[in-house]
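Predict the structure of DUF2484 family protein.
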Amino acid sequence: MSTSLILACLWGLAANLAAMIPSRDDHWTRAYILIVFGVPILGFVTLQHGALVGLLVLAAGCSVLRWPVIYVGRWMRRKTGPRKAAD
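Done. Here is the predicted structure for DUF2484 family protein.
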């Protein structure tokens, strides 16, 4: 197994361990830290193994960090949604 996939597996293990520990802020601080470390790992995986494996790792990361993805989707929908005509 390559270094990038080992790092991705360690990231997934760290994400699951972080989710098991109680948190006062509903795990948002840990989610931000996981995102900061996950994006370069995702780039490294994509660089070494190609776009298909990169998309699979991205899907795995999105399933772990689903609430930040949901909030970004809602924010983008609000920003790009239909606008009401001015009277």
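The chain has a mean pLDDT of 92.
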